[in-house]
Design goal:
180 residues; eight-stranded antiparallel beta barrel; 73% strand
Length: 180
Amino acid sequence: MCHEDDRKGFIFGGALGTALVSYTEKLDSVKTERQNRIALFTELKYGYAASRQLEIIYSHKQAWFGTDLPSTPGPFLEEFTILTLNTVSFTYYFKPRHPTFLVEGGIGYAFLWVPLEDNTSFGQSGAFGWGFQISTGYRLTENISLIGGLMYTLPKDKEWGQTYTFDGLIPNININFTAF
């Protein structure tokens, strides 16, 4: 951990919390009703603290949940699923010292996959798309923050002449640990 005055430089961190994955699925023109699943939420991040109030980070956020994925052909199946959002993000702290409020936002790519299934409806590689995230929180100590956020993801995949789309809105709350 860093000394109180050494907040500038390379950073590494992680988070653990919970999320609600609210989503619709679309296979060509057939769209499902909105589904909601409770998920384990994790994050790994690394980057650079440009000052005591600004961080530029690469963020790897994941929601781990069970979902009904369409199979081809047949009914929906309950599967363990991971939704990932990788972003370039900026975190701004309102004051240079804790305690203080923070805001964070970023845009990047989303990835949906079913790691325990060898034959998913959207192929072996998963579904790719774009997404963004916004968060706000409170830095309790120099290294610990409570954060609430919202992710939006839109991964797609085209297999067998059909286009699969996962439209996800993911509110989350987590405790975030950062080392400098």
